Amino acid sequence: MDVFTLGEAMVCFSPTTGLLDAAAHLGCSVGGAELNTAIGLSRLGHHVQWTSRVSTDPLGSRLLAVLEAEGLTTNRIRRSPDLPTGLMLKDRPTTEARVLYYRRGSAASALTAEDVDEDAVSSARFVHLTGITPALGPGPAAAAERALAIAGAAAVPVSFDPNFRPQLWNERQAAALYRRLLPSVDHLLCNEAEARLITGHQDLDRAVSALADSGPRHVIVKRSADGVTALCDGEQVRVPAWHVSDLVDSVGAGDAFNAGWLHSRLTGLGVRTGLRLAAFAAAQVVRHAGDYEGFPSATHIADWLAEHDRQPDPAPPQR
Predict the structure, then answer these.
(1) Could you give the domains of the chain?
(2) CB 198 within 8 A of CB 209
(3) Active-site pick, 255, 291, 303, 309
């Protein structure tokens, strides 16, 4: 297996035209940070297992149908007859969508450490986690920490996106958990606000250095239109954003970036090429409505790579 991940996915309803408060018809899709990244990786040819819980309700069935169509391994998804599948509504007054979540008491909020398959984690080439899952409650937090502990014992590299959600918890709670997890993280994929939240430094360069000192070999700060600032194995790298002239919906861009970066690690690309590829993947998503629908295919990425440098990374230092 290439990548193990876990978390909550939700069914998403959004207006086919106009705004939510006046919409006569709603389109139906699915979304969720870890799931979006998992779909992105699967489209690039990687074997991905996503672990979660969904309801036996029709929305849960819709989710599973999408996952299976996208080629994800779903044998570790438990279905609950008593708890609903999470739901989100998306409004687009601008290209910055407004998302309303209805996830309290969802099936995924009942995740526990027992849901995490030790063999699946220890045999993966990467484990990808986000800060959303621990924010869902004690059970999901225990599941994420068990995955992290198994990965550490098996020397499986971990990527982590804080994905801070103020609807789920406050900054103090989130920062405390992030700081506790970072010594076990190899690849930190955050935004500027999260870098400052975790470190307390307003200066971005100081924040990046402090994050690297806390454990991750790769600290990558996604800065939207300002590109990417990274510190990878002690080397500072800056990459511009990929220009998008037809922006539709910014939701899912960070998840696509994560998928692009992990793809570059799994295929041995150089750091700078990997960051540029990740920025390119993010740019494709924002040209489409929906959290994952615009994720590029393996052919799309291969065509892009054919036009760019493909220098492999040097051997990483021993940890």
Answers:
(1) 3-301 (3.40.1190.20)
(2) no
(3) 255
